[in-house]
Amino acid sequence: MADYAALQQAVISGKVAQVKELTQQALTDGRKAQEVLDQGLIPAMDIVGEKFSCHEFYIPEMLIAARAMQAGIGLLKPLLVQAGSKPRGKVVIGTVKGDLHDIGKNLVALMLQGSGFEVVDLGADVKPERFVEAVQTTQPHFVMMSALLTTTMLAMRDTVEALKAANLRTAVKVAVGGAPVTQRFCEEIGADFYSANATGAVTKAKELLPA
Amino acid sequence: MAMSNRERILAILDRKSPDRIPWIARLDLWYHARMAEGNMPARFRGMSLVEVGRALRTGNPARDGKIFNVRYEGLEVRNERAPGVARQRFITPHGEVTFGRILSEKVSGTTDQGLPLEHPIHSVDDYKVLEYIAEHTYYDPCYDDYLAYEAAVGDEGYPMVSCGDVPFHYFLLHLAGYNQAYFEMVDHAEEFEHLITVMEQIDRERLWPVVADSPARLILHGVHFDSQMTPPHMFRKYMTPYYKDFSALLHSRGKSLTWHADDDSKDILAEVKAAGFDMSECFCTAPMVEVTLEEARAAWGTDVTIFGGVPSIVLEPTYPEAEFEAYLRGVFRTIAPGDAFILGVADNVMPTSIIERVERISDLVEQDGTYPIQPD
Question: Which of A29, A107, A34, A108 is nearest to A73 (CA)?
Answer without folding.
Answer: A34
